[in-house]
Please model this.
Amino acid sequence: GAGVSQSPSNKVTEKGKDVELRCDPISGHTALYWYRQSLGQGLEFLIYFQGNSAPDKSGLPSDRFSAERTGGSVSTLTIQRTQQEDSAVYLCASSLNLIGGSEAFFGQGTRLTVV
Amino acid sequence: AQTVTQSQPEMSVQEAETVTLSCTYDTSENNYYLFWYKQPPSRQMILVIRQEAYKQQNATENRFSVNFQKAAKSFSLKISDSQLGDTAMYFCAFMNRRTGTASKLTFGTGTRLQVTL
Model:
């Protein structure tokens, strides 16, 4: 596609429910990132996929969070048993990143509200 | 692990004036990249400027320029002739010039810039 696409744009869910957030990166980009941005705050790193390397999961805040990237393309971030503190904008980005340094292109994000 | 620090949570500048946003970072690497990203209220992250650590010359993009001090691990952004459309959050970011997951992108906490009339 022309850019990084995230769906849904907005998601309201009840506390305790599971949610799945989807990211379609730019075709051919080997690197994919997930970040979380709470209201008015900076970008909190969650997870990073780079080609066939093992993903860097060091930013996932708890075992309720998981992510996968199928076929080196689409990625899904899953949050199980959602809590109110999970409310945030979840941003996905992709880059060519063959040897580092490539520009990361961001999606518009998914605004998650847990009620 | 790399860290990126932005010590100015908020800045304000009058239209047509110049403003400088600060960023420092900590790394043991020698080859890396530094970026400034802009996030307007639309929440779309946009790349403003990029610097390659092995280049001594400071990067410039129209009204945007950087002051890259490698020894001091400092990477400030200067915005000249500020415009109302420059109002946004600005994030400094670091990336190793390596392969695999060692090259992930690390962000600072951001500086909120308000351009006033």
